[in-house]
C-alpha cells in the first residue's frame, strides 16, 4: 500500500490525479490540499509515502513546502506537478530533493511510469522536457570521459557513492573527486544534486 497526498489549488487537477491513482488498489489517497499551508499541515499529520505537489500555490509555494518537510521527513517522496518546462524551475526542484518532475499537460499519461520509477529509488523527469540542442550540451559531452558518462547514468538510477565505488573498484573519496572534476567541466555549482539535475536534463545524450 502506498499512502499518497495530492496538493494543488485546482480541484479538477486533483480529481484527475485521484481518478488515475485509484486504478491501482495499492494506491491510497489519504488527503488532498488546496494551498501550500494546507499541504504542509496535512503532510506533517498524515506522513504519506508520496506527495504530488504543484509549485505555484497560494500562501506557500510547493518548493517551500518540500524544504520544510524534508528537514523532518527526508523519506517522503515528492513529485512536482507544474506548467513550467524551463530549466530554472526544474533545477530548483531537484535541489530540494524531489524524485519526480511532471508537466501538468502530460501528467496523467506519465503518472504510472513516474511512480514505478520513483518506487525503484530512481528519479523521473517528464519525457516532454528535453535538452535543447542549441544550448551546446552536445559540445560539452565531448569533454566527458566514458567513466564520467557511466557515473552520470548511475546517478540517475539512484546510486550512492558507496555503490559507485563498488562498481568501479575504487574508494568513495575517489568517486567524490571524479564528481567534483565533472561539476567543473560542466560549469555546475558544488551542490549535492547539481550533477543529477544536469544528467536528467540531458539523459537522451548519455
From TrEMBL:
Boundaries of every Response regulatory domain copy: 3-119
Residue ranges of the TM segments: none
Cross-referenced SUPFAM superfamilies: C-terminal effector domain of the bipartite response regulators (SSF46894), CheY-like (SSF52172)
A GO molecular-function descriptor: DNA binding
Modified residues (4-aspartylphosphate): 54
Superkingdom classification of source: Bacteria
GO biological processes: phosphorelay signal transduction system; regulation of DNA-templated transcription
The entry's keywords: DNA-binding, Phosphoprotein
Pfam annotation, one family: GerE
Protein's UniProt keywords contain Phosphoprotein: yes
Record protein name field: DNA-binding response regulator
Organism (species): Sinomicrobium pectinilyticum
The organism's taxonomic lineage, starting at the top: Bacteria, Pseudomonadati, Bacteroidota, Flavobacteriia, Flavobacteriales
